[in-house]
Write a structure and sequence with these properties.
5 helices; 2 domains; Arc Repressor Mutant, subunit A; 3 strands; three-stranded antiparallel sheet; mainly alpha
């Protein structure tokens, strides 16, 4: 995201004032969410399945504890990257899907995943 046309970032604490530098301030919030362990993998798994239930996410991730998964899902939902849909059924059913912003984050991370896959393949050679 480029700075405002007046050359100043909206955040007065931003170190990048003036010039053609890119203001990194908008990254602060999203980095706090997606840098937590499991967050990117959860986004990827939900994106791969379009709609998925809690236990299916657990099965896909393997080592994650139910509490950690629940915490990450709440954080991702609060940040607007995933949507939780509860159905009034017995037993209760909840499905998770990506929001428009979640899809954009997933699309943005695909080049990073491809790069990581390439680097891992090079290590095996």
């Amino acid at each position: 995201m480029k700075k405002e046309s007046n050359g100043h970032c909206k955040n007065v604490n931003c170190a990048n004032k003036g010039g053609e530098e890119i203001c990194l301030c908008p990254l602060d919030g999203v980095i706090n969410v997606i840098s937590k362990k499991w967050a990117l993998m959860i986004i990827s798994i939900i994106g791969n399945h379009k709609k998925i239930r809690f236990n299916e996410i657990m099965d896909n991730l393997g080592d994650i504890s139910p509490k950690t998964l629940a915490d990450r899902l709440k954080e991702l939902e609060k940040f607007g990257l995933i949507e939780r849909e509860a159905f009034a059924e017995i037993p209760p059913r909840v499905e998770y899907s990506l929001t428009k912003d979640g899809i954009e984050v997933r699309d943005a991370m695909i080049p990073l995943m491809e790069w990581a896959f390439k680097k891992e393949a090079e290590k095996r050679e």
